[in-house]
Amino acid sequence: MKTLKEALTNVLSSLNIAEKKEILNVLYHILQKIIENPSRAKFRSLKKDNKTFVNKLLQFKESDELLRSLGFEEEPNRNSGFYKGACKHDI
Fold this sequence. Notes:
By secondary structure, the protein is of the alpha+beta class. Helix content is 48%, strand content 12%.
């Protein structure tokens, strides 16, 4: 598994400025919700059928690796599929 720095570098390397801002904003909001609500499981799950999540993050190559570097794991057993996990890094 790649480190967070490696995964983020891979994702951002091929993006233009607007795309970089967008993906970093999405990541910020995901992590901010976890920080604000560390004991609430719903903020540690990302639904793969969520339009905002798909359009602003999953559309980019290497985004799966980035999510894994943050401690999220894909759970294919769910109907629509989603990522579940806790940020394994100290925030």
